[in-house]
């Protein structure tokens, strides 16, 4: 007999208790349900779930729109229309039963914060539901700031910024101007002296956080509280990472790669703990930002960032399905938003690039090197095994050992991790696109430029022959921002023939 949803929230709770020892009914397609959920709802338990619908938006036409702003609008509209239409019947059912949920369009899915066996069974039996995924609180070890220091050398440039030749780009007049870098992380100390002037929500005299900040933490929230109306960091990690991409206090602390770029932020973790739903919420916000306290219906694709830094992971061994976030990353790419991702800190073994979103082909994944261009022991290695692809990862490496950056409270601190390597690449993209505006949003060409210009580094680990680039340790090698610009140069703007025409498709 088909299980029906009760008509009131209290009845729902009672029903879940009554079914304490009931397995999923036979008519429910148990193959749709994550084993993590099956275990969680056994014996009367309940858990958070993500309900992924069968119909997903076809973005092929939208992604082919040549003009970038129109492409972003077309991608967002295609996602929104698909979700609003295809979720209608399911949302009506949940509304009638008093079941709370949050709707997503970047992946056509619903987040339900409390589901028991009966609800899971009914949802799994629906033909419009493709699968039901877990929404666990996940956490890989994130680097935290070491003991801070406000001291710096006058007009100093950090070694890592110099190593990737960012100052040479600045000298040529390319500082990231006109480019917006999105960051989803533990939050941000937006008023930090190395970050404030670059924050898009600051106009030089006052702050307006609409379209530049979103908090995906809706309960708890640590020292920031839930739904913080202003950027706040309860862990320190986000303030570190954004500093590497754009940080500069105008004097003694030149810590960032693209000090002329602007940044916006989304908090996806509470004290280092995130969920697939909070990650999706931030990805959706970046696709079409909306006002503080607003809803995705108010989203404006014209306010989207150009490139996003993602120094976080969603570990499958903690219950995150490896494919839950894939469609969201692909939607970002379809909209011309480049997704830069930390490769993870699970090295030195092979096949340790193992967590979304670093495993995806649509993401540009970054490993970590030290000041001598040696691979950091913690840096994740390829090939990707968890999805059966055997994909070579990381795509590239950047400095990630003992990186000095901004820390909450106006301080500065050092930390190590691929979390610190990835924002070097996000900043380099900002430099490259500010130098060649016609390249903005052309992600395939941008990835090729970064790859082909990287400093060749070789490995005999993880099946690598010792004389091949790319490889499963360094990818295409160590980032070189100036060399990436040389590949394109002014020829990209004028239509002159140059090296990119010979690059791999």
Structure characterization notes:
The protein has 505 residues and is α/β, with parallel strands linked by helices. It folds into two domains: 9-134, no CATH class; 163-502, Peptidase S8/S53 domain (Rossmann fold, 3-Layer(aba) Sandwich). Helices cover 28% and strands 14% of the residues. The chain is built from 15 helices and 15 strands. It has helices at residues 9-18, 35-41, 60-63, 68-86, 88-97, 117-125, 159-163, 166-171, 237-246, 276-287, 326-334, 418-435, 443-453, 481-488, 491-494, and strands spanning 47-53, 102-104, 109-115, 129-134, 180-185, 213-215, 262-267, 269-270, 273-274, 307-310, 338-342, 364-369, 396-399, 403-407, 411-415. The strands form four sheets. Strands 6-7-5-10-11-12-13 form a seven-stranded parallel β-sheet, sandwiched between helices. Strands 2-3-1-4 form a four-stranded antiparallel β-sheet, sandwiched between helices. The chain has a two-stranded antiparallel sheet with strand order 8-9. Helix 9 runs parallel beside helix 12 and helix 10 (276-287) runs parallel beside helix 11. The longest helix has 19 residues, at 68-86. It is globular, with a radius of gyration of 23 Å. Residues 1-28, 148-154 and 490-505 have low confidence and may be disordered.
């Amino acid at each position: 007999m088909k299980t029906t949803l009760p008509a009131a929230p209290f009845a729902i709770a009672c029903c879940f208790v009554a079914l304490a020892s009931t397995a999923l009914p036979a008519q429910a397609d148990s193959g749709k349900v994550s084993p993590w959920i099956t275990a969680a709802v056994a014996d009367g338990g309940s858990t958070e779930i993500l309900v992924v619908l069968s119909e997903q938006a076809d973005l092929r036409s939208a992604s082919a729109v040549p003009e970038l702003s129109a492409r972003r609008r077309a991608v967002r509209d295609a996602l929104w229309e698909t979700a609003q239409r295809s979720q209608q019947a399911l949302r009506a059912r949940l509304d009638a039963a008093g079941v709370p949920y949050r709707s997503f369009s970047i992946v056509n899915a619903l987040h339900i914060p409390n589901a028991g066996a009966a609800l899971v069974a009914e949802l799994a039996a629906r033909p419009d539901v493709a699968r039901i995924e877990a929404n666990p609180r996940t956490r890989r070890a994130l680097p935290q700031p070491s003991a801070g220091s406000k001291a710096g050398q006058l007009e100093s440039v950090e070694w890592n910024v110099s190593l990737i030749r960012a100052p040479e780009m600045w000298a040529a007049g390319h500082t990231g101007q006109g480019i917006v870098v999105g960051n989803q992380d533990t939050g941000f100390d937006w008023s930090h002296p190395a970050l404030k002037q670059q924050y898009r929500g600051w106009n030089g005299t006052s702050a307006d956080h609409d379209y530049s900040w979103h908090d995906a933490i809706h309960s708890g929230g640590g020292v920031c509280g839930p739904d913080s109306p202003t950027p706040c960091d309860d862990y320190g990690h986000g303030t570190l990472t954004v500093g590497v991409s754009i940080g500069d206090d105008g004097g003694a602390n030149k810590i960032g790669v693209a000090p002329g770029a602007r940044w916006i932020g989304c908090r996806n973790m509470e004290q280092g703990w995130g969920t697939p739903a909070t990650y999706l919420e931030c990805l959706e916000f970046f696709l079409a930002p909306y006002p503080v306290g607003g809803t995705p219906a108010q989203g404006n694709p014209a306010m989207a960032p150009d490139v996003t830094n993602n120094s976080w992971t969603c570990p499958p061994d903690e219950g995150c399905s490896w494919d839950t976030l894939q469609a969201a990353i692909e939607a970002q790419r379809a909209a011309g938003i480049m997704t830069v991702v930390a490769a993870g800190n699970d090295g030195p073994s092979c096949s340790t690039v193992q967590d979304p979103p670093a495993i995806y082909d649509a993401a540009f994944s970054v490993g970590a090197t030290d000041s001598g261009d040696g691979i950091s022991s913690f840096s994740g290695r390829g090939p990707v095994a968890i999805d059966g692809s055997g994909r070579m990862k990381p795509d590239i490496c950047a400095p990630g050992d003992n990186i000095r950056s901004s820390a909450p409270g106006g301080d500065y601190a050092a930390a190590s991790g691929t979390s610190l390597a990835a924002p070097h690449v996000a900043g380099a993209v900002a430099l490259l696109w500010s130098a060649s505006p016609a390249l903005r949003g052309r992600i395939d060409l941008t990835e090729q430029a970064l790859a082909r210009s990287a400093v060749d580094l070789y490995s005999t680990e993880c099946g690598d022959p010792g004389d091949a680039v790319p490889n499963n340790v360094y990818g295409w090698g160590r980032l070189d921002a100036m060399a990436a610009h040389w590949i394109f140069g002014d020829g990209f703007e004028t239509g002159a023939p140059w090296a990119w025409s010979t690059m791999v498709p």
